[in-house]
Amino acid sequence: MSFRETTKCFGQVTAVGNVSLDIEDGSFVALVGASGSGKSTLMKMINRLVEPDSGCVLIDGQDVRTVFAPELRRTMGYVFQGIGLFPHLTVAENIAIGPRLSGTRLPVERIADLLDGVELDKSYAARMPHELSGGQRQRIGVARALAADPKLLLMDEPFGALDPVTRDALGKRVRALHDRLALTTVMVTHDMAEALLLADRVLVMEAGTIVTDCTPRELLSGKGCTTAQELVAVPRDQAKALADLAS
Ligand SMILES: Nc1ncnc2c1ncn2[C@@H]1O[C@H](COP(=O)(O)OP(=O)(O)OP(=O)(O)O)[C@@H](O)[C@H]1O
């Protein structure tokens, strides 16, 4: 996937300014940066929830604007905070909604497989969303995103509202699914520790541009701009403080 000189403005605000970027198939990319730096806008141009003012997004060399938006979105999973399950549909119906809209009925075994992928028992299929915890709802969101066998998984603060233990477990689970299904994953997160632990590549955004593009190892060895290093300092200082406490 590539961004080519991609720009999106909202009035006077340049949310994304002239970004060019290649994302390799199979990679797990984290987008981090301060609130308002343009992470969500950049991501939403991939699934056409936002259209660029200039430049383009290419998938397999094809401009996403040449693909009918609902058709395009069926080829990518999208997980966002507060996942938006349909309250009057069961878990199974929620998971199957994408394929159903395109005329495919998911077999019961496939639903069970998808639940298993997010470490939920198949008995959850019959539950209603209000009978689930927040973490379980996010798991269903991930299962739903994977229901149509996408190659690309887009996640916008997917674990933001979860407690730290659930967040850690679900993050690891998603990374395992990414590897097993050979997905290309783009994840927006505020949490540099999460980005360092889950991603192959971390992009730091500031005022609509990518100011650092490094691997976690490079970031931890001091590479990247000041903003990136300030973000890395947070988990590093916490880890050091904890190690000091324990010694
Ligand atoms: N639909 C919109 N209308 C007007 N301005 C918008 C819209 N969407 C985003 N913006 C503005 O564009 C800029 C980038 O927003 P964006 O949501 O991409 O940032 P972000 O890095 O994802 O922020 P956060 O981490 O808070 O979600 C911000 O200044 C925001 O106010």
Automatic annotation (TrEMBL):
PROSITE patterns documented for this protein: ABC_TRANSPORTER_1 (PS00211), ABC_TRANSPORTER_2 (PS50893)
Domain of life: Bacteria
Pfam families linked: ABC_tran
Domain ABC transporter span(s) in chain numbering: 1-232
Organism listed in the record: Pontixanthobacter rizhaonensis
Protein name listed in UniProt: ABC transporter ATP-binding protein
Entry keyword rRNA-binding: no
Gene3D superfamilies for the chain: P-loop containing nucleotide triphosphate hydrolases
GO biological process: quaternary ammonium group transport
SUPFAM superfamilies in alphabetical order: P-loop containing nucleoside triphosphate hydrolases
Keyword Transport: yes
Keywords per UniProt: ATP-binding, Nucleotide-binding, Transport
GO terms, molecular function: ATP binding; ATP hydrolysis activity
